[in-house]
Design goal:
The chain has about 140 residues and is mainly beta. The protein is built from one helix and seven strands, in the order H-E-E-E-E-E-E-E. The protein has a four-stranded mixed sheet, with no helix packed on it. It starts with a helix and ends in a 30-residue tail after the last strand. GO terms for molecular function: copper ion binding; oxidoreductase activity.
């Protein structure tokens, strides 16, 4: 009987460990191709730094606990870099932006971070979401 009970305990412990393992976070991969493109806004065209031909750049979507890998290939100035980071302690709509030495206003985009799988929103879950990105520097010279 003792061996039988020990077997049941081992099986139950194994089952509990299997059930209690949290769901694995997703790895989200993004490719950002940085180029200078002519962009038209407010009846003006000018060359600006874009990501994947877009200004503002693409939106990054993630959940808390996800791992993000963003490979940036800078065709405008040459070179590339891959950013690796884990999404922890953040929730909501944030933004990313470039750091280019002499530019005060440059390419940017939204980062939408939703709660982790199985974690409720801290407010009623939205019926629909839309990213709205505002910029104020289109008519000014960002190089000065």
């Amino acid at each position: 009987m003792g061996c039988f009970h020990a077997s049941i305990v081992i099986v139950l412990l194994g089952f509990l460990m299997l059930v209690s393992v949290p769901t694995e976070a997703a790895t989200k991969k993004y490719q950002f191709d940085v180029v200078v493109s002519n962009v038209s806004r407010l009846c003006h065209s000018k060359p600006v730094v874009t990501v994947n031909g877009r200004f503002p750049g693409p939106t990054i979507y993630a959940r808390e606990g996800d791992r993000l890998i963003v490979n940036v290939t800078n065709y405008a100035h040459g070179g590339s870099y891959t950013y690796h980071f884990n999404v922890t302690g953040q929730r909501g709509t944030l933004w990313w932006h470039a750091h280019i030495l002499w530019l005060r206003a440059t390419v940017h985009g939204a980062i939408v971070i939703m709660p982790g799988q199985g974690v409720p929103y801290p407010f009623p879950e939205p019926y629909q979401e839309t990213e709205l990105i505002l910029g104020e520097s289109w008519r000014t010279d960002a190089e000065r």
